[in-house]
TrEMBL record:
<protein>
    <recommendedName>
        <fullName>Peptidyl-prolyl cis-trans isomerase</fullName>
        <ecNumber>5.2.1.8</ecNumber>
    </recommendedName>
</protein>
<feature type="region of interest" description="Disordered">
    <location>
        <begin position="30"/>
        <end position="74"/>
    </location>
</feature>
<feature type="compositionally biased region" description="Low complexity">
    <location>
        <begin position="45"/>
        <end position="58"/>
    </location>
</feature>
<comment type="similarity">
    <text>Belongs to the cyclophilin-type PPIase family.</text>
</comment>
<dbReference type="InterPro" id="IPR044665">
    <property type="entry name" value="E_coli_cyclophilin_A-like"/>
</dbReference>
<dbReference type="Pfam" id="PF00160">
    <property type="entry name" value="Pro_isomerase"/>
</dbReference>
<keyword id="KW-0697">Rotamase</keyword>
<comment type="function">
    <text>PPIases accelerate the folding of proteins. It catalyzes the cis-trans isomerization of proline imidic peptide bonds in oligopeptides.</text>
</comment>
<keyword id="KW-0413">Isomerase</keyword>
<dbReference type="InterPro" id="IPR029000">
    <property type="entry name" value="Cyclophilin-like_dom_sf"/>
</dbReference>
<feature type="signal peptide">
    <location>
        <begin position="1"/>
        <end position="21"/>
    </location>
</feature>
<feature type="domain" description="PPIase cyclophilin-type">
    <location>
        <begin position="78"/>
        <end position="236"/>
    </location>
</feature>
<keyword id="KW-0732">Signal</keyword>
<dbReference type="InterPro" id="IPR002130">
    <property type="entry name" value="Cyclophilin-type_PPIase_dom"/>
</dbReference>
<dbReference type="GO" id="GO:0003755">
    <property type="term" value="F:peptidyl-prolyl cis-trans isomerase activity"/>
</dbReference>
Amino acid sequence: MRSYPSFILSILSLSCLFAIGCGGETSPPAASIEAGGSSSGGSGESLSGSPVSVESGGMADTYQPQERESHPEVVLTTNYGAIRIRLNAEKAPATVDNFLNNYVESGQYDGSIFHYVAPGSMILGGAFTADLQANPTRSEIQSEAANGLKNVRGTIAMTRDPEYIHSATNQFFINLADNPNLDHVEEDEKKYGYCVFGEVVEGMDVVDKIAAAPVKDVEGFPSLPVESVVIQSAKRVR
């Protein structure tokens, strides 16, 4: 598990980067985001590399299976309400596979929290429990930030160590505003960007409600909601 001092350093370094990069932008400046799991933090297990699973039965005859496989949907049920997310396995196949098969299907997001809230920028979650214990992670994945998807309001993206491109594990964030400074620019750690792999299709009002929650600074956890914002369950629904 990555140590808290390293976690704080990642937040501070990204805060400085985004504050400088967003000068003159009309949209709110992008806030800091926590680093993803390190190579020492995972279990060492490799991703299966299997395609996104497709559930069976119950669909109309006119339904297209390929659409379902390419754009599966997940509902995050929180104590603030439900958030429905449509994933893009066509543009980010490895990232969607990791999110679904390593964390959603295994139930590892159930009981996790949104532990970082930056109004006007993002909410970050998936990595910690309500008592601020780190959830176990699988192996880090190759970043797909160069897939052409942008960090605009309502999209979901993976976090990573700002010094290591291919370090995403279980942490993700939902953009509250357009955050162009998080987009892929070039093959460089500081400009590679953060991989967008889906978008909120229902419940953006819930996301905004979470963003308005009072926050406090706790050692190792800046901008932590005063009342825990708990992901009670994460379930694939399509």
